[in-house]
Amino acid sequence: MSQTGMDYLMSTPRRVVTIYVPLAIIVFVLLFPFYWMFITSIKPNEQLVNLDVVNPYWVVAPTLEHIWELLFETPYLSWMWNTMMIALVATFLSIVASVLAAYAIVRLRYKGAQWIGGAIFLAYLVPPSILFIPLSLIVVKYGLWDTPWALILTYPTILIPFSTWLLMGYFKSIPFELEECALIDGASRWQILTKIVLPLAVPGLISAGIFAFTLCWNEFIYALTFISTPEKKTVPVAIISEFVDGDIYRWGSLMAGALLGSVPVAIVYMFFVNYYVSAMTGAVKE
Amino acid sequence: MADAAIGTRTIPAEPSAWSRLKTNRDWLGAWFMLPTAAFLFLFLAYPLGLGVWLSMTDARIGREGIFVGFENFTWLYDDPVFWLSVFNTLLYTAVASVFKFAIGLYLAILLNHHLPFKAFLRAIVLLPFIVPTVLSAIAFWWMYDPQFSIISWTLKELGLITTNINFLGDPWNARWSVIFANIWRGVPFVAITLLAGLQTVPPSLYEAATIDGANRWQMFRHITYPMLTPIIAVVMTFSVLFTFTDFQLIWAITRGGPVNATHLMATLSYQRAILGGYLGEGAAISTAMIPFLLAAIMLSWFGLQRRKWQQGEADD
């Protein structure tokens, strides 16, 4: 489907000027920081601090020194591990809760379901940056301070509203007749959910899962506030708080860390980009 | 349950309390909602209330506060740094949102043409949105380095400037620098969502308009734009909301500096509450964000209502 329907009538030179050139510029700007991270992470130090030796856009005698230093002389691997574990557990909890909630709102249509659906939508609009102060007191009170559980249990408040919203759309698209037949055959709601609805909603579960996972990986303010032991930190927090020796920034390792920290999310996302896009549009269409 | 129903033909007895729990919609609904309700109440609704309460106390880290009414707010009212953070937040939100919308819409329209490697292009365009904000913000921090900035180097090589730009050392330079990083991060989300919206516009409308002799601008103005309005309303509400409450990008690049020039309300409240230990005052700054958020939510609500109205209520 094209923008005007008359697209193919445009001459090639005109297409180049009106489409390809602007597109190339925007894509260049969007991707340049990643290139710059990459090139910085393999550049020898003398090329980093003296831009006149060789053209800074290129690298001569690339080195793995920064990456080596990052992986084996800092707790980077344990930061990765922490981030991964927290993201996986929080995602799992959120998806379980969201599936139940979305199913109940869409299919059980209990008293006040509509109202609660609205309340969950509003919950998505409450930003972490106004919750972190009272939450830090609560985390201390519940004895979760400086443990991964502080993050595992608080992240679902960010993840559940969106996942529920998204899954509601998926559940609505599953024909109700399937469930009616099962109900008549005497299946319980739980059996219907696990044996009929969930298998059909797998794409929805995947997109909700990806969304939740990337959001966990991206979360910053809770991780910054609730975790204080350096080894227990998550990648984004550790990178900016543990990589500064006095006034000297280890740019090479810092960039390597930023790049490697992005890789797990990028991989997950590359595999499921279509689910992801349809998830975002699905959510907007709701 | 199934075998109980088959074979016996007796008059069904009054259902037991247990089976009623399992079949009554309202009860079942309550059970299914339980995990979500527990999370959202314990870690969202309760802290939200506690935050408002904290903003009216003089709590510090390690010390329970006592109720002081609106003292924190009157104190903030006389605090120039607070007003500077409000100004910065509004500037940051307004400028970044306008550019995100304009560039995002433009990019969406570009991507909606017939292009080679369309799926691949769409995937790489979304990258800045996917990668954790702090990690890409660090890349910007490095690109804005006062001595070794690649941007300064390039401009010098091109002969456009003679000395390095002090990106993060000068208040206005720092403001534009963080706004640029925010736009960079936000454009993909707007573009991809609007692209999805564009693809739902029936091509027959454009064909009809072409037959009627409409030009490109008229088609955009009278077909594309009205069809996209509801999606634009939702996307921009989210965009405004998340820009307004942004914390991580500023914290990673400037930490509010130089001399508070880039403090947003969120970063200022972190600094006062967690680093400074004045929980009550920090909470008051966060609470002051709520009226703005309510305004954004109202906008979003009306955007959704309008969409329902366009699609017909029955679609719900």
From TrEMBL, chain A:
A Pfam family annotated for this UniProt entry: BPD_transp_1
GO cellular component, one term: plasma membrane
Subcellular location: Cell membrane
Recorded topology in the membrane: Multi-pass membrane protein
Lineage: superkingdom: Bacteria
UniProt keyword annotations, A-Z: Cell membrane, Membrane, Transmembrane, Transmembrane helix, Transport
Domain annotation ABC transmembrane type-1: ranges: 80-272
Primary residence: membrane
Transmembrane annotation, as ranges: 16-38, 79-106, 118-140, 152-171, 192-215, 254-277
GO biological process: transmembrane transport
SUPFAM superfamilies recorded: MetI-like
Protein family (similarity comment): Belongs to the binding-protein-dependent transport system permease family.
Name of protein: Carbohydrate ABC transporter permease
Source species: Microbaculum marinisediminis
From TrEMBL, chain B:
Transmembrane segments: 28-48, 90-111, 123-144, 176-198, 225-244, 283-304
Membrane topology reported for the UniProt record: Multi-pass membrane protein
PROSITE patterns per record: ABC_TM1
CDD domains, A to Z: TM_PBP2
This protein's record includes keyword Plastid: no
Keywords annotated in UniProt: Cell membrane, Membrane, Transmembrane, Transmembrane helix, Transport
Gene Ontology, cellular component aspect: plasma membrane
Single GO BP term: transmembrane transport
Domain ABC transmembrane type-1: 86-300
Source superkingdom: Bacteria
Compartments (UniProt record): Cell membrane
Record Pfam families: BPD_transp_1
InterPro entries given in the database record: MetI-like, MetI-like_sf
Protein family per UniProt: Belongs to the binding-protein-dependent transport system permease family.
Protein known as: Sugar ABC transporter permease
Species name: Microbaculum marinisediminis
